[in-house]
Amino acid sequence: MPEEKQSMKSVSLDAERISNMKTTPRTLLTLALLVTSLWVGPSTRAGELIYSQTSDNQSTFGPSQLWTATGVNSEVADEFNVVANIDRVSAGGFIWGAVNFQGVYVRFYAFGADNKPGALQREYFLAAGDPNVTFNTLTGGIDATLSPTFAATGRHFLSVQPVINYWYWWSSSSGAPRGEAFYFRNNATSEAWHHGDGLNTNVNADVQFALYGTVTGAGAITSLSDTTPPRSGFLEIFGSNFGGDGTVLIGGISAPVADWTSTRIVAYVPESAPLSTLPVQVVSNAGASNTLPLTVTTRPAPASHVNWRFRMNGPYSEVRPAIAPDRTIYVVDVFAHLYALTPDGGLKWLVRGAGEKGVAVGQDGSIYVASESFINAYNPDGSVKWQFVQNPRSLFCQGVSVGPDGNIYAVGVEGPGIFSLTPAGTLRWQQPEIYRRPIVDYGEIVFGPNGNDQQFYFYANTHVRALRLDGTPVFTIPTSGQPAVAPDGTVHFPLGAYSPNGNLLWIFQTPYPANVFTPADIGSNGIHYFVQNLSKLFALNPDGSQHWLAEVNGYVDGPIVDPFNTQLVMGSADTLDHHGFVLSASTQSGQENWRVILPLEDPTVWNPAIGMFGFNQFPTTRARFTPDGQTAYIHTATATGNNNTSKSFLYSLATGTGVPPTPSPTPTATATPAPTPTPPAPTPTPGVTPVPSPTPTATATATVPPVVTPTPTATATATATPIATPTPGVSPTPSPAPIPSKAINLSTRVQVQTGDRVGIGGFIISGTAPKHVLIRAIGPSLIQSGIADALLDPVLELHGPGSFVTMTNNNWRDDAVQQSAIQATGIPPTNDLESAIDATLLPGAYTAIVRGNGDTSGVALVEVYDLNQTADAKLANLSTRAFVGTEADIVIAGFMLGSGVSQSGNDRVIVRGIGPSLSALGVSGALADPNLELRDGNGSLLVASDNWQDDPAQATELTAAGLAPASPLESGIAAALPPGVYTALLSGTSSATGIGVIEVYDRGTE
Fold first, then answer.
1. How many CB atoms lie within 10 A of CB 163?
2. 43-57, 390-404, 979-993, range with greatest mean pLDDT
3. Buried b (16+ CB within 10 A) or exposed e, 606-644
């Protein structure tokens, strides 16, 4: 196998220590010489590809050559079956030493009655130097354009015999030829055609060639790989004369196609196909084929921790999935397919030839895919957006990524080098990256802070490099392995860490002899995890001291920690003699939480590699968590020795919470409302201490684990909110028995500016008892969630009614008493620069103001947590006032509706987007025309409102509730919602900006 395709999992701290450590390559047996040995002829010639047999690199047959100087005159012929006009032939050959190519004979023979080559039907000779023939002196490939065309009428034999001193034909389909195996004859001795050649007798194989031209007859389907596949299921269609491309119809619905050859098509059952028996048909330019029946079924139900799995068409993938703001999962395989999958495992679309060296998603939903030749950009519907050509072509390309600034970054070794593109595909800058030795593992680019700057890191060519986002080099360290970046910006490898400027901070002295090390992963709390010798799972403290050590049952690959630091998910190492698995281990101790055994594939097929029937699956990537930590995606593969029969899958695993049952801060219930005040002035004006006027001002719930980063439209907006949320398995007060529904955790993501454009969140506590709450202002930790312009040092002020004394906090650890109380809640901020206030508040209206320390600006979350849910009081109405930007800088509010034991029916909620009426309150720069969207926890749009009077029914309900906005340009939504997580998004119509208010009112159950 080419070294590029192996995966060296050893990493160490410096060049000196590397030489003392052993490495273990990943054994992707199957896929030997996957791409490098395939020879493809010129693509500019006329005619489409209508038939091909690709090299399997198992053998060479022949010689098939004419060379009178040594008396050699022998040829190889192989069968094909097409109805077409053939105008071009390419064949893959093996040469040795110096060769003297003088021309080539291309012959077509009839398919004889004895299944051997029969009468010669046409012979072509193209001499060296003829512009219609190309001979590749590096690979031995021959490409010949034929004139006149050969009219094929079905089954024929093809012979390619160059006039040359040495040429053998590469094998194809060893052990399973298409139709007849190849034939050989020695013309110098008048030998008859027979299977096998002078060296390899009775060989059951084909040879490598491709035919180009125009199909003149319809295809014929002979069989299907599966007659009862599920929706989005993998389907092979076998037959003949399918041509070079076309359409597969299943019940008249066009099916996504991953691979198309003359005799085999790989398609997927459309998600929209009805659950019934449907006809399958292939349609090409030459017409429609016959049909075969297929019964469409539902996808298998989730079992154990497996939500679903999706089979890809490539034999494996080494690129972790990318998750879009709208929760679409994008994956690529080694055959350069790009798949877009829904969260429940449905195939939305696929693109052939997209790339295989990385996949990333931009803030606007654009998808970026890398290969050694291109960076391709696609729109969320799969259409091409742009293509950047790497000139010169990369020797290796890795790590296409979207940076925190929204630009694209990649490394093209010996090509463009390290380079960055704008979201429009324009080159920003490039730096050289010289080839030093083969890259033996697919690498990712990772980002992290260095003070107020952001920079990125990658490993290639025996070193790790750091650069700023403008391309300025920061450091180069002679070490190996995938880097990981901690929340504080330190750069980690399994056995050590560096500062963002490249200074060595610590080295961990492992108690075991050095051997194999996996890449490290770092939790948002700074804890460092890695595996040594495939089974020693280490957790290190941020200073490099040992936190704990656990022995894993079985051999595992690199751990990935979930967003809330509750569990580590690891796939098994690539050993093929036992079932692969995926397991979860506790971050508290390393103790195993659960394990998924990967099933055996093809149990009736003999596996010669290990002397048993069937092929074990093994993970080929580390896991990728969803932002809510509830799901992990991981790739697996089998190794059969044949790229067509090797299988690869994407698994969706339900991870739940990793720590033994402490419920994460998922609040219990939502709200029997106290009387909803009807606000004359729905939000505080921008004074220094804006106490909310009679308006029930509000923020809304977002940051609880179940929050799924509801990312609405293609506006990149929502990706952030739910990630700054509480650390793992803590729940802010375990409430014994839920009382009627209450809003418990509420947050809003805002663009904090200066002056009167700071973030202002108002909330009202209604009821008769005091309410224990925690208010947080989150900023720096948002960087780990991909928020480029996070507020780096938030300051929080809490203002209240009457004689309430204003409370202020800069860094949450500043006050020892407050620090202790905040830690006792179980949900302290994860960054010391973030702010929090623990308080017990009497019923009334309160305002939380978030500023940037030193008049700085950026994105922040303002959050309110109900820490005493059984009290006879609740967080009633909530609102947030902030500057409303565009795209990622709109205002996003989240809220959760829970179901208490006494609740019946849905909760009645009103959400408002306020702008123009703020001008009457003295607010300058108010948002002129707000636009409001309400989305569920999956990011699906429930209701949208531009002008609140547009929908008469909605307008009537808003008016009846006393909550009709003051301006007809303002937005309002009235909805009855079941328990769950919801997100409200406030933007300006036509991308306008300005100060706006987003409000949420809980009006009780139906």
1. 18
2. 390-404
3. ebeeeeeebbbbbbbbbbbbbbbbbbbbbbbbbbbbbbe
Give the Cα separation of 223 and 234 in Å (integer).
Answer: 14
pLDDT in tens, 111-163: 999 999 999 999 999 999 999 999 999 899 999 999 999 999 999 999 999 99
Closest CA to 749 of 859, 911, 627, 831: 859
Q: What share of the chain is helix, strand, coil (3-state, %, to 5)?
A: 5, 45, 50
For the record, the structure tokens of 238 come out as 């076998």
**Can you tell me the mean pLDDT for 762-768?**
78
**How far is it, in rounded angstroms, from Cα 851 to Cα 810?**
10
Kind and range of the H or E element at 822? helix 816-824
Judged by DSSP in three states, 413 sits in: strand
Question: Which residues, including other chains, have CB under 8 Å from residue 78's CB and lie 6 or more apart?
Answer: 53, 157, 158, 180, 181, 182, 183, 206, 207, 209
Q: Write the DSSP string, 92-113.
A: -EE--SS----EEEEEEEEE-T
Per-residue pLDDT tens digits for 909-923:
889 999 998 887 778
Selection from 754, 761, 758, 748 nearest residue 682 by Cα:
761
pLDDT tier at 716, thresholds 50, 70, 90: very low
Residue 133 pairs with which residues in a beta bridge? 144
Backbone angles phi, psi at 324, to 5 degrees: -80, 165
220-251 burial, b at 16+ Cβ within 10 Å, e below that, comes to ebeebeeeebbbbbbbebbbbbbbbbbebbbb
Amino acid occupying residue 36: T
d(CA 486, CA 537): 19
The answer to whether the beta carbons of residues 516 and 22 sit under 8 Å apart is: yes
b/e per residue, 917-947, with b = 16+ CB within 10 A?
Answer: bbbebebeebbbbbbbbbbbbebeeebbbeb
| DSSP assignment of 74-94 | EEEEEEEEEEEEEEEEEE-EE
First to last CA, the chain: 65
**Distance between CA 781 and CA 812 in Å, rounded?**
14
Residue with structure tokens 């809510």? 628
Is pLDDT above 90 for 660?
no
Residue 495 to residues 440, 474, 522, Cα–Cα distance (Å): 20, 22, 13
pLDDT tens per residue, range 547-577: 999 999 999 999 999 999 999 999 998 667 7
Q: What DSSP line would sit under 679-713, residue for residue?
A: -SS-S--SSSS----SS--------STT------S
The reported pLDDT for the residue numbered 128 is 96
Residue with tokens 């002829």: 41
Collapse the DSSP code of 611 into the 3-class scheme (helix H, G, I; strand E, B; otherwise coil) and give the result: coil
State the pTM of this model. 0.63
User: Using CA atoms, how far apart are residues 638 and 600, in angstroms rounded to an integer?
Assistant: 9
The per-residue pLDDT for 878 is 75
> What pLDDT is recorded for position 869?
66
**Any residues with CB less than 8 A from the CB of 35 and at least 6 apart, and which?**
none
349 pLDDT more than 70: yes
Residue-level pLDDT at 439: 59
Q: What's the token pair of residue 878?
A: 């909530």
Report whether pLDDT(715) > 80. Answer: no
Please state whether the peptide bond connecting residue 392 to the residue before it is cis, i.e. omega within 30 degrees of 0.
yes
Q: What are the tokens at 845?
A: 């209206």
Q: Is 4 helix (H, G, I), strand (E, B) or coil?
A: helix
Neighbour tally for 715: CB within 10 Å: 20
Q: Give yes or no for residue 40 having a pLDDT over 70.
A: no
Residue pair 251/278 in contact by the 8 Å Cβ criterion: yes
